[in-house]
Every structure is written in structure tokens, then in C-alpha cells.
Amino acid sequence: MMGSQQNVLNQLVSFILGASVGAVLIVFFLSAGQGQWSTGLSSWANESKVTAPAAAAAAAAKEANVTNSAAHVEEKAGQAAAPEQDLELEKLLAAVADEHRNIIMTSVNEAWAAEGSLLDLFLEGFRAGKGIARFVDHLLIVALDDGALNRCRAVHPHCYRLTVAGRNLSSEKVFMSEDYLDLVWSKVKLQQRILELGYNFLFTDVDILWFRDPFERMSMAAHMVTSSDFYLGGAYNTANFPNTGFLYVRSSRRAVAAMEAWRAARAAYPGRHEQQVLNEIKRELVAKRGVRIQFLDTAHNGGFCSNTRDFATLYTMHANCCVGLGAKLHDLRNLLAEWRAYRQLPGGDPRRRGPVRWKVPGICIH
């Protein structure tokens, strides 16, 4: 549970003010690999810090393989935007997915993929993290423009070019503009297609630093696992506010139907982005469609909107509630530098037991 109700209110006000101004680019990553992840789906039920009912976990495990059949893939094949692009996607997914058909996904445009920008910082975070460097080998980067694709190919072996019809996505997009909305909803469409092809995805924004293995915080019983802008307590409590910048979904017919319902709900909530719409329909997905949604505690998967400022418990940090590329880079670079200093403390140093707080003020982080 987050602190007092007053603290939650203050954070919520900060979030609304931060989200209402300026320009923001949404980017998303696709990744996976041929190697075995040390924490995979088969081991989540034992390793997760979130306890799940045995019956739910068993049902989830049974459901996980529903979409792996060729018949289901053929049934959904006609929904791909372009046959050539779909074929390329299938080949890449097959090449990078792990033995449990897990992938990690994100995406960048030219501005965020440029040398010294967020993509470089994102990759650097894996090398500096605790036992997570292996995830880079499983990373598939989705490029939104040719500049991003060229830069991706210069620094990483697995890149995929996504096109959004009639849109130039190479520059930063004004928050809630038509280009912005088409961009974020194209992400959901791609995620649905990945599920239809029988793969599980973990989507992570590129402005998220990873410090520890986030799979340790996830429950195998969940169909969908999302980070939280504000965590009010209870891993399955739909009063929590989702942040789809960090989202895991396990492939199943139920999950595909949930994604279809999510995309269809855009018409009922015109002018809203995908995260806002998910927040509106989350209770319906749970009550009417039987979707189990786990919300990650901000004590472990934090963001600039809401965080514990404690390296001893932190798994990921998202530069949300932060307007502008320069501001994000400034605060995330400082945060990574302080993480490195924390990691260099001797093992017996009492400062490693926490709370381990970073310096303030930043441009966005508090």
C-alpha cells in the first residue's frame, strides 16, 4: 500500500499536471531470444513474490498454450495489416522467442534511437543491472521510421520496422494529438497480433531503466500484468491505476479477446489514449471476461509519478510524469549513475539494506 491518502492525492495531482502539458513520444520495444531466461513462465509460480491461488495458476498454465496451434494462427492470419510485414514479424518472433514463447517488446523513433539518446541509455541499464544483462540478447527493437531502423541495426542485431499508414513518426509527438493517438493504438494492434501468433509479450517503454529481473514480481496466475501509475494496495485490486508502459500479457484466446475488446473500446472513448481506455474497461475485463489483471507495486516497479526512492527494493523505474526528451535523459542518467554507486558499496555496508535514496532535485523526479 502506498503511504497516506494525502500522499496519494499529491502524487495524483502531480501526475495530472505533468501529463497535461508538453510533448511526449510513446515508444515501445519488442524483444526476445533463443536462449533460456533464468526466470521463465514455468518458474514464476515458485519464484513470484505475489502468491496466486493454485487453481488459478493451474488454469493459467493450461490456457497458456491455447494459441500455439497452427489452426488458431490461420484463423487470425487475415487480421495482419500487410502480408509481407506479418511474415517478417513471424520470422523475427520465431528467431528471438525463448522456450516459453516469451518476447520483450518496445519501440523507438529516430529521436529516441539517436546516439546518446534513450535507446543507448536503456541498453546501458541492462549492463549495469543486477543479473539482467542476458535480456539484451533477447531484445527485438521495433523502429517507427527509417532513421530508427538504421540506428537500431547499427547497435543491435534484431530490428523490426513498423509502419502506421499515413503517419510520420520520426519526431516527438504532441501529447494527445492525432498522430500521438494513432501511434499508441498501433502498439496495441501489434501486441494483439503477437498474441494471435502464440507468443507472450512483455512490453516496456524505452524510458524505463531495469535494475533487477522484473519477472520475479509477476504471478503466473495472471493473464495480464501491468505497472501502476498509482498503487493503492492489492495485486488484483482494480482500483489501482494501470500504466501500460510496462505490460506483460500471456497468449491465450481469453487474452486475444481482451485485446480486441480494448481496441474496440476506443470508439466509446474518443480522443483518449490506450492507457486511459484500459483504466475505463479494466473492471469489465475482470468481471465479464474473466481476465486476471495483476498490478505491480510501485515499491518495486516505480515511476517518476510514484516511487519509494529506495534502490534496495527497486526493479524498474519509469520516467513518466516527465515532459520532454531532455528532461527524461537528465534524470535517468543521474539515476543510473547513483545506481552504479549503490552497486559498488561493499556487501556488508548497512547502506545496501535501504532505504537507499537518490539525490534530488531532478528536473522531473522527486
TrEMBL record:
Domain of life: Eukaryota
Pfam families on file: Nucleotid_trans
Keywords of the record: Membrane, Transmembrane, Transmembrane helix
All copies of domain Nucleotide-diphospho-sugar transferase, residue ranges: 135-332
TM spans (from-to): 12-32
Keyword Magnesium in annotation: no
Full protein name: Nucleotide-diphospho-sugar transferase domain-containing protein
Organism: Zizania palustris
